[in-house]
Amino acid sequence: MTDQAQAEPVRYMERTRRYYRALGYDNDYVWARFDEVPFARLGKPLREATIALITTAGPPGGTNRNSRGRKEVWSGAVASPPESYDTDLAWDKEATHVDDRETFLPIDAARRCAADGLIAGLTPRFHGAATDYSQRKTLEHDAPELLRRLREDGADGALITAL
Amino acid sequence: MSLVARHLEANGIPTVVIGSARDIVEHCGVPRFLFSDFPLGNPCGHPWQRDMQADIVGLALGLLETAEAPRTTHCSPYEWPNDPDWRQRYNRVTPEDRERLLAIGDARRVSRGQAPRWTEPIAAG
Fold this sequence. Notes:
The structure holds two protein chains of two kinds.
Chain A (H helix, E strand, L loop, with lengths): L3 H4 L4 H11 L27 E6 L18 E4 L29 H9 L5 E2 L2 E4 L6 H19 L3 E5 L2
Parallel strand pairs in A: 1-3, 1-4, 1-5
Antiparallel strand pairs in A: 2-4
Chain B lengths: L1 H9 L4 E5 L2 H7 L3 E4 L14 H17 L5 E4 L10 H4 L8 H14 L14
Parallel strand pairs in B: 1-2, 2-3
C-alpha cells in the first residue's frame, strides 16, 4: 500500500525544471497556460458518435520529419496500424516500456468500446500530433491541420492520448 | 496535446485527453481530462492489460457525454502495480548526479551544434 506522500501526483513541471537546470540550461521552459477553456458539446448521443484517436507517438522510422527535421502531423489506418512507432519522447524509461501500442494509441480498447455500444465506432484514420518545443508551431500549424483531417474523416469527437 | 484539444474544441469538436502529467494538463486547461496516475508512456493502462485499457478508454469516452463544463478532470481508479516507488525516480536530481547530468547536457548541446558548458574539473595540486 502506498502512503499519502507517495500517492501525490508527480509534479512534472517542477521535476523537469530541476532536471534541465542540472543539465546546464538556464532558461526554464514556460508551459502554456490559459484562463479561458473552450467547450463544445457532442451533437449526438455518444453511442452514435464516431471518434478519432490522436496520439503523440510518431510513425516508424520517424517518417513524419520534414527536410528540417521538424515533426509533422501524420495519420495511419485504424484497420492496419504500424507495428512499431517513433517513441523518442520524454516518457518514464525507468518505470515502464512502450512496447504495447495500446498504452498510448488504444485502437483495440476503443474498438471494444464500440462493440459494447458505448460509441458508434472509430474514424478510418488515427492521427499523430507531434509534440513540439514551439507552442506557436502547434497552435498555428499542427492543430489546424489535425482539425482539417478530423473534419475530413467526419469525426464527432476526439480521444487524445499522450505517449 | 492540450493545445490540440483546445483548438479542436474551439472549432466545435469535443475532446477528451487521457494523460499522466496532471499538473501540466491542468496548468494549460483542457475541456475534459482523464488523469491516469501511471508513469509517462502508458496513460491508457498497464502494458498488455486489455481489460484495464478498455476500462480506462471507456471512462474517458464517457466524459465526452457527461462533462458539463470545461476543466472537467476525472481520475482513473487504477494504481500502477508492483512498483510503489516509481513516482520518485523520474528525472530525479541528486547532488552526486551533478557531473553526470552536466555531461548529458553537454552531449545534447554538442549534438545540436551548440557549445558545451562544462569541462572535466582540473585536479587540485
